[in-house]
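Q: Hi! New to this. If I give you a protein sequence and the SMILES for zinc ion, can you show me the bound structure?
A: Yes, paste them in.
Q: Okay, here:
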Amino acid sequence: MTVLIDELIREGLITAEQLNDARIKRIGAKKPLQELLVEMGFIAEEQLVSASSKIFNMPVTQLSKETIDPSAVRLVPYELAMRYGILPLRKEGDALVLAMSDPQDIMALDDIRLNTGMSVKPLLAAKSEINNHIKKYYQAEDNIYDILKNVMGADKVEIVTEDASEFFLDERAQRSEDVPAVKICNLILSDAVKQRASDIHIESQEKTVKVRYRIDGDLRNIMDLPVSLHSSLAARLKVLAQLDTAENRKPQDGRIKISVNGRKVDLRVSTIPTFYGEKIEMRLLDIQAAKTGLESMGFQGPDLDIYKQAITAAQGLILVTGPTGSGKTSTLYATLNVVKTEKNNIITIEDPIEYLIDGLNQMQVNPVKDLTFANALKSILRQDPNVILIGEIRDKETAEMAFQASLTGHLVLSTLHTNNAVASITRLVDIGLEPYLISSALILVVAQRLVKMICPHCKEKYQPDGHLLSLFKSHIDQLGIKEFYHGSGCSYCGFTGFLGRTAIFEIFRISEKIRGMIAQRFAEDEILSEAKKSGLKTLARAGLEKVSAGITTLEEIFNIVGAASEEEAVLRSAQAGKDIKILIVDDEEDILKILEKRLTDAGYRVVKARDGQEAVAFCNKEKPDLVISDVTMPKMNGFEEVKALRSKLETAVIPVILLTAREDKESELQGLDAGADDYLTKPFDSDKLLARVKMLLRRKQ
Ligand SMILES: [Zn+2]
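A: Thanks. Here is the predicted structure of the protein with zinc ion bound:
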């Protein structure tokens, strides 16, 4: 029996029976006896503290009245403070004053002494009070501890630098107050690499710091961190990217090289000041990815042959087109990797340089120093390279020089922002190029997109939406597609049904005949139909081939390239309506059926609800473009429904048409009063209904 327990009995603070009860409980609890006595309500915490103070002759402190020195707190790591239930308070000479609840814990004192290299002056305090203060003073640590606790297996993240002194900087940071920031930073970087993210966004908001990744082209919320971590996290990343840590009002750009489990990744870091603090964006450039070949990008069969033949030409111009994020740069790098072996002098002008590749001379555009694409090109041509890569053609001057260069013994590769391959001709004419110049130099144009691939772990057969099938009917028939696949969602794909992306290509070869058509200023659609005759495969067709092979879904192709609308103007208008979602609300199944048929025939997407409540719930979740609702319904009628929608900012702007059998002026007024935009009486004329729908949707834009 300990002295403390003896004293408690002698003072009559606990009874022998209570002590016995606590002893029995202790067998499973592995806690000091006195702690159990408090927990079981036999003695108050303050009584225990004052009794301990008397016996061990240790002064008592009340933490709520202490001024705690954060630099003293930092001397003891969080794990140690938690393990022993101690809180550092302040430094007194070379002694560390700390609060503890168990004066008999000699091991704790020894350990702290060893860890800090200081002598220790303990004060007594209530255990619960100490725990609360540990939570408060190690708040960031506490949060990280919670996060890290759930993350399995630590990855080895190394910051790769050429300069050895940087290592020192990093080591020092490890030991300083930024330990939680260092830990969370490593966690985010390694996790992002493992999840194949292309970007990391760290955004400070009012109450949280949002961490999001872009994976396969989509942004995903990864986690919310406490706001208290933002400044140290931002500072940590800025140190790594060699940015000015004191500057947080101006945007800055930098780079970090890391290695995650031996895999090297380049990060392009940019910071932007926002109202709630700096937003940090990091682009992950996988160095392995820069070594990708054309085949693994998705180039196949005849496409690959045509392309490979084109890039072996001694001179001429090759364009890769597509929107931002369509993988144009990867295609160009893959191309350079092929030509690199045959041609010896390759020069690139980029903005910015994404990957550094062995054997190339890469130049970064710098408008501040007046190094534009055009100026850079001028100086490059003096060095007489065989192959020139120009990051992008944006203006007439660059375009003209690129075309001139490609007529004088250089193979020129570049990119252009257009939706399809043939449209690049129109775009170049718009920039200000003479058609004869285009026709004489252009060899080939590739339009490309990245499409998500079905996750192989949860891939299954399914039946796509009827409307979608009709949009691609001709291709589906021609390719004889009988079965469709999608991913049902699983843990491998983060329940998205997709894993990874592949490219689809539209290859437009400039034949002799097309050359003539360009020079004679033929219209785009005439050139397109000629190109198709000689084998051009549109992006939609290339996409449908991937659907046929079970690589991607019909929905994905629709999202990325739109409908296969080159055939019919009718389909084009249907596609325009496809994006418009109309919610129809009625408790009568027949009316719902009629409305659905009319609206889907007109190309709209239709969603149904059976009463006002269901309608409001849907609108809150997934804003439709228009609501057509009955008035008399169970649970919530049409008037109440409109009022509910109008009462929230988010749903207030959704246009509503009320539909009812009552043909009296009064209910019409009541409906408009509630905030309905239009009113129609049943039985309605469907032409009239469609006219009103169109009118309201137009008004909305
Ligand atoms: Zn899956």
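A: The first helix runs from residue 3 to 10. Let me know if you'd like me to explain how to read the tokens.
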